[in-house]
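Notes from hallway chat w/ T.B., transcribed later so I don't forget. T.B. wanted the structure written out for a chain they're using in a teaching module, and asked if we could keep both sequence and structure tokens in one place. Agreed to drop them here.
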Amino acid sequence: MPIIHPNTTTLPVTDYPTTSPYTNSTGNPIAVAAVDFINNLLNKIPLPRWAIYAIFVAGGLLVLLCCLCICVKCCCKGKKKKKQQKENINLKGADGKTTTALVQPDVADVDYGSAKRQRGKLLYSLDYNAAQSELTVGIKQANNLKAMDLGGTSDPYVKVYIGPDKSKTFETKVFKSTLNPVFNEQFTFQIAKSSLLKSTAVMKVFDFNRFSKHEIIGEIRVQLCNVDWNHVIEEWQDLAEPAKFEEENLGEICFSLRYVPTNAKLTVGILEAKNLKSMDAGGTSDPYVKVQLALDKRKWRKKKTSVKKKTLNPYYNESFTFDVSFEQIQRVNLVISVWDHDALTRNDAMGKIFLGCDAAGNQLKHWADMLSNPRRPVAQWHSLLTAEQVNSTLVLKRKLPLQNKLPFLGGPPT
């Protein structure tokens, strides 16, 4: 029997509920289960509750901010579209004719004009001598050219020809790392007055790249029928976007040059070609490369690569060495030509280029780089020209004089 203290009062025993004070046992059982699941999940996270709540609040604010940015962008886009539609509606009057006020540039016109002007300007001259049927095109200088390189500059040069015949193509020298080159070069074309009025003078400004395709910056086309030939024309003109027609792409070829003056060896390494012209019915070609040396404008020595079957992007990696003395190297021209091999018919010329003492532009630069870096191979890509363009500039004589009359040749041709 329990001992009851005299001063102690006993209270009736009451059964209390065993559920958590935070759980509403009379509520929705689904809600109770969800709350218990969330509490158990939060208890498993090794962070204090205040940190967890702060992370949730930050995430919610980030989502809200993203939604707000999307809404603002959509609203601006809608307003811009409505503005353009309104401008298009106001372009014409009731009679369907534009008003003179529309000729004045608005904001859109100013932006478009600046996009055109950013290609730069070119100062050129035109002079025609009717007595000698000679057209002289002068490339003076360029200004504010478009930067094509990562350093914010370009390596510009100008290519000049007369269309549509394009019998000759000239190139200026290359200026390194500048947007304001001063060329001061002149090029002469033989053209009759009757043909002059049907021709177009084309001046294309390129950015030079040694190991990739040269990028065009812009061009100028002058319809010669609109020129007043009573005096010399000299003017600045904005470079325009290059035309995407007219020029036939004959492909490119990459080769290296190495000259060692101590042992009088010239080594030509034919590396590869790409984007050659299709010559066969199946849309391919069987290209090979012919390497020819001309001394004093006379055919001298030649060699050729192997034939690559059914490809427009052949890889050769073949080299040829010629004996050329230092005295001869100053009078030698190197002719590189690509041919399509045919077993039953005559081989077809696919493209041609020449370097040497009579070359110009990129071809002369490559040759000069070789001479200024003896014993070191210098590789470069070149765009192929038509045989007519090269032959009109480099006129070779057919036969080599007798060997006993030219003792400096140093042996028979190879």
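Follow-up for T.B.: The first helix runs from residue 29 to 44. Might be a good example for the class.
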